[in-house]
Amino acid sequence: MTVVNLEVPVRLQAFALLRALRVHQWVKNLLVFVPVLLDHRLQLPVLAKAGLAFAAFCCAASGGYVLNDLLDLEADRKHSVKRHRPFAANLLSRSFGVVLVPLLFAAALLCSLWLSPRFLALLGLYLVLTTAYSVYLKRVAVLDVILLAGLYTLRVLAGVAASHVRFSTWLLAFSMFLFLSLAFLKRYAELRELPAEADGLARRGYIRGDREWLGSMGGSSGYLSVLVLALYISSEQVVALYGTPLLLWLICPLLLFWVSRMWMLGHRGLMNQDPIVAAVRDPASYVIGAIVALILYIAA
After folding, report:
1. How far, in Å, CA of 217 to CA of 203, rounded?
2. In angstroms, rounded to a whole number, what is the distance separating the alpha carbons of residues 223 and 219?
3. Cα(24)–Cα(279) distance, rounded to whole angstroms?
4. Which CA distances in Å does 239 have to 24, 298, 300?
5. pLDDT (tens digit, 9 = 90+) per residue, 148-161?
6. Rounded to whole angstroms, how far apart are CA atoms 298 and 42?
7. What does the alpha-carbon distance between residue 293 and residue 168 come to, in Å, rounded to a whole number?
8. What average pLDDT does the segment 159-180 reach?
9. Cα–Cα distance, 267 to 157 (Å, whole number)
10. How far apart are CA 66 and CA 99, in angstroms?
11. What pTM did the predictor assign?
């Protein structure tokens, strides 16, 4: 069994490995820090535990991406963009990927040994769900986007378990609706990029005619997350954390603008990557994030 493709230069293979691990997607794992920030627990020991959780999820997520690419190998080679992925383009051998997946999963579990049993259980659940998603569940329409949203939300819950900060059902509800909106946007954007001769997404449960439905469901989910935020601001829990909770109402129109902007970019065909990664590369998202952070700081 050949693990390394000897026909490809070593430097090119190293770059291809970084692409296969999808290092740029690790930004999603910063979600483990969200409960720490919202609970105002910025002490070094707490942040260190969240950092270890971040490392564990980076390894687990990269393992899931490699597994997904191996399973989608033939479909990716027929895709106009995905055929350039390292395994589809033969920059990395399939046997190398088969070895890499269990190594990454093992590294994720190793990182979690220094954290709580609850975190280990959540990480194990993440590994099971992401594997099931890659193997079959991504082909089931609607269930796939719910699962994607759940995997995002699972990162937030893992941050709570790793850092031992307070659990908030408000944060859970807000995360689920917001990430469901982004999961719908991901599928919407993929349908938007379909070539003219294609009727639907390969190895997915969606056809071209589902695009308007995805837009309706995704937009509604995004606005529901703003509603959950508004209800949270009106709750007694906010009074214990913020000295001037009324200022938090300013976040609602900012979030409405951001959700609407992301969907507008998708509608215009400018959302050609994962929505969270696109947000990280969007200057307007940074401006909105900075304003929200300032409001939270003043309100506290």
Report:
1. 21
2. 6
3. 12
4. 37, 14, 10
5. 999 999 999 999 99
6. 16
7. 19
8. 91
9. 31
10. 10
11. 0.85
